[in-house]
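Example 924.
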Amino acid sequence: MLQGLFESLFGNKHEQDLKDLLPILHEINALESWARKLEAEDFLSRTREMKAHLADQGDMSEILPKAFAMVREAARRTLGERPYDVQILGGIALHQGRIMELKTGEGKTLSSVAPAYLNALEGRGVHMVTVNDYLAKRDAEWMGPVFEYLGLSVGYVIGQLPLDQRKDAYDKDITYGTNNEIAFDYLRDNMRYSRREKMQRGHHYCIIDEIDSILIDGARTPLIISGPTQEDTRKYVEAKKAVQYLQECAKDPATDDYPEEPVGDYKVEEKNKKISFTDDGLTSLESAFQQQKTFSGSLYDSENFEYIHYATQALRAKLLFHKDTHYVVKDGMVEIVDEFTGRILHGRRYSEGLHQAIEAKEGIKIQQRSRTLASITFQNFFRMYNKISGMTGTAATEEKEFQKIYGLDVAVIPTNRPVIRNDQDDVIFLDEKAKFNAICDEIQEVSRKGQPILVGTVSIDKSERLSQLLTKRGVRHEVLNAKNHAREALIVAEAGAEGSVTIATNMAGRGTDIKLGGNPDFRARRAAGSDADDAALEASFAKEREKWIPQNRRVKELGGLYILGTERHESRRIDNQLRGRSGRQGDPGRSKFFLSMDDELMRLFGGGAANMKSLMARAGLQGEVAMNHPLLNRAIERAQNKVEERNFEIRKHLLKFDDVLNEQRKFIYDQRDSILQDDELIQRVLASVENSLEGFSEAYGSRKVLGEAGVAELADHLKEELLYSLPGKTSDYAHFTAEQAGEHIRALIRDELSSKEQDIGKDVLNLALRREYLMNIDNGWQDHLENLEALREAVYLRSYAQKNPLLEYKLEGFQIFDEMIQRIRLAVARKLILVRTKGLEQPAAVQMPRGEVKHQELNLLSRSGGAAPSQGARAASGGSGSGSRKGPLPGQKAATVVRSQPKVGRNDPCPCGSGKKYKHCHGA
Ligand code: ADP
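Predicted structure in complex with adenosine-5'-diphosphate:
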């Protein structure tokens, strides 16, 4: 039959694609009799051989036909289902890293087994991505026997699964799990403090079920882990008390600047909003803390070291940030004031603990806030895999997007039997009330006849409204809202039973097959009870199937499942998904949409809708009169097309913004990984020291002799960047060039660090350094996420000033990232240089933050003419920036972010991505 089908085709792209796959299909078919003769143990030994073949650099396409033939046979033996030719074709497309469009009910679950098996033979794991936990477990249990027959192991991850079992599941050849769980585990893996604790072993190959809903509908919602900060807020109060006793260095009245050898505890730089301590200052600070009994040891003990940071922020809060100028205190909260306009930036917070320091200064409650610990969008998560493939019933309408953004090709696989569903023209009503009335009439009439009907709605709200109306009329029905996937799967499986009326939102009960006459498998399971053994289950299946056969015939006679859409969605794809629930595997069926001029989509016609509505009214058409015309269908399709294109543009645009963050995330996670593996971390510290010295040399002029003034500058530089006090006298260095002095100091520091290493042992030091690096990276990264979010809002307002927001975002995002990396490097170097070795031996215990998974709409949408972010999304975004969507103004962001000159090297590639050197591009 297939052959005939293909011969009649005249060669559009999809048909040509399939023709190209036919020779492989023929090969697989030809191997069927070979596979039939294999003994059970042959499957295991063949699997081992093929694994060895691939480990030996063998070619996967060589073994594909045998592998697929074995899967087909294994499925036949274990499930009693022999994959159809179309399923094999789909499987080949999946193996090729494409999207397989296969209509609902055609058996995507089984189609995906062969490519999963083949790719798992490489021994690097295959992830099978489902839309909910229920399906992850169901599919793993359903297809498990096939994989196991072939000699592969199968596991699944779902929410609430304990960590050890989770790791086990990822170690299996095949791992089923939802997109949420798998991406969440990835983020958490990158928050761990040892390599052994990581769950995932990499991202080799994945098959994403319902790929359209994940990569297109889910495109605006990044996955977010947020959690409370674990900081002890008392430390801010202690620091505020301690700094009271410190004195600013005296200034030279002639120059109004600090002398070369300042006397006092700290210097204040008004312009850059900076504070730096002198050696005396640190000593005074230590005794202040000791006197007020914050701690009894030294400031340079590992566990006390962070007080330098708290004290710095306390001084900045006290001296550089003024109430009613920089911020106001309102309702017990510190709120930032926009410098340029005086407007309050609601909800915005200063970063790096400054906000808490100001709260301590004002004597109000220090907010223990929840913050974003990690985030990623699904697109960027899945783009990490070496090979992605996906399945859906509806991809062709979004083919361009899959191609452009993900480089994914869509292969449209024909149905095993032709679809005979009757898709009827839309009917349209003057207003919503008339529409709902007509819908109720229709449901009542259809269900009286006994034809099962599935009513699709666009929201839970509408489902409930309709449900109330039906209850008033005494029509029995079920309502599904995608709240409880397992229970709803049971209900939706029965949606094809005679007389069923089921109201469901788009996501409810997805992935569950609706069989005409009800679902005998589900019924058998329920009848047999959960503790039934195989034999009892088998008997129950046989009994239920027998009862089901006449019921199935009867429902077919009644016309199959009737799909009633209560509104058209913005995207044709979603409408097609709804329709596709009926007419599976050649079954009869019918679909029809009921619209009104009040519908969301109709309003997208703009003024047209209002005109049309008044025209209809004037023509004497009353609410209850339906209009039905093919022209109308075409007009609707055009409107959907327009909306689809606009949404595509928005997503494309969002992705460009997200790419900036993505590059940085990759860099940070790579760094984290290499730190987890590095046994010579001290080398990194030395490199940071060297960097800092070179920085000085470059700025000062490497060959210039220092002289007294130069030595003072060098001492300042070392103090500021490394908290390192230049040993000896000025005259020791005055005759050196900057470069020579650098070398000398480098040697000094290297010796000091080596002796520390000897003191406590290399391994202990390395462990302490690792912890230090990771802690700094994680905190720095979390601050950075907030800063970038603030930046994204700020640049958008710059578009009014004729600036390109994306470019600004790239440049400035790059710059604040660079600054963060610098800060991390210096922070660790500083600590190692200053801290006493004793303290390093007992590194503070680090707790894995208990994150919460959330979805957040990217707030950019509200600026680009798209839908406004939802309330829930705002709440989810935590402290920073969440409430300030109306607020921020050009140039305004968290105070610590600002830097007037980009710190991109002149010869570095320009961060705008032009490929030119920075000095020839935006640095020109
Ligand atoms: P989809 O995800 O494509 O909507 P499913 O994977 O849920 O479809 O499968 C739909 C139904 O078809 C299931 O009941 C399954 O057992 C059945 N099925 C799939 N493939 C075959 C086959 N080759 N032979 C017999 N039944 C099959």
